[in-house]
Amino acid sequence: MANFQGMARKLCEQLRAAGIQDEKVLRVIEQTPRHQFMPESLAHKAYENTALPIGNGQTISQPYIVALMTSLLLAQNPRKVLEIGTGSGYQTAILASLVDEVFSVERISALQYQAKRCLKKLDLHNVRTKVGDGWQGWQSKAPFDGIIVTAAAARVPEALLNQLSSEGGVMVMPLGETRQRLLVIKREGDDFTYRDLEDVRFVPLVEGDPE
Predict the structure, then answer these.
(1) Left (φ > 0), alpha (ψ -120 to 50) or beta: where does 168 sit?
(2) Of 42, 134, 194, 197, which has fewest CB within 10 angstroms of its CB?
(3) CA-based nearest residue to 118, from 1, 32, 204
(4) What angle do CA 105, 87, 126 make, to 5 degrees?
(5) Are 138 and 163 in contact (CB under 8 A)?
(6) In terms of DSSP H, where are the helices of 61-180?
(7) What separation in angstroms does the CA of 194 have from each of 98, 138, 143, 173?
(8) Mind listing the pLDDT tens digit for each residue in 46-82?
(9) Distance of CA 76 to CAs 118, 144, 208, Å?
(10) Strands 80-84 and 146-149
């Protein structure tokens, strides 16, 4: 899809109109080939502002949500970020273009393998991925300046709160089952503040052994 940047530019215009203001995030979205992170049969829809299936019951997130969550995280200038739910690797690629280090956990090994291939193809070498239970985070690499969760949890995972930097660490995540809300959680020492933003729709964050 040689002309993807023209379509990506139009997508970014839609995101601006929807309220995304962080130009660094928009520039990276414009430059990132989203079509490479999804099945070839859906590539013609890659630059529509919609979530799409990627197999294994998972989706590649809507570009608006990727841009919004990334912008919320970047507002705190994180350098080291944990992503829960690698999925297609698209959100990972956006983060890797904007922060120093990304550590990403995926519970489905087939998706993690495919995402690693896509990230390598784009020469994004500041990403470490592993197959694991996202509820447990990545303790050996903690603390993290920022954590982004790309699946909806029924409750805020305690392990992720503990892995946030105590000096202004921020987590952006969807919370809820029937109704999901996007939260921004900020840590200062042992205190956490919660900001509730808007309704969202994500696949559930499954707890337990990886597949």
Answers:
(1) left
(2) 194
(3) 32
(4) 55
(5) yes
(6) 63-74, 90-96, 109-121, 158-163
(7) 24, 22, 19, 11
(8) 999 999 999 888 889 999 999 999 999 999 999 999 9
(9) 28, 12, 31
(10) parallel
Domains of the chain, residue spans = 50-200
Q: By three-state DSSP, how is residue 19 classified?
A: coil
Burial class of residue 144 in the structure, from the number of CB atoms within 10 Å of its CB (0-12 exposed, 13-18 middle, 19+ buried):
buried
Nearest 5°: phi and psi at 187?
-110, 135
CATH 3.40.50.150 assigned to domain 50-200? The reply is yes
Collect all residues with Cβ–Cβ distance below 8 Å to 98 and sequence separation of at least 6.
Answer: 24, 25, 28, 70, 74
Query: 90 is written with which tokens?
Result: 């698209």
- Percent of the chain at pLDDT > 90 equals 87
Please state the pTM of the whole predicted model.
Answer: 0.95
Residues contacting 110, CB < 8 A, separation 6+: 55, 56, 211
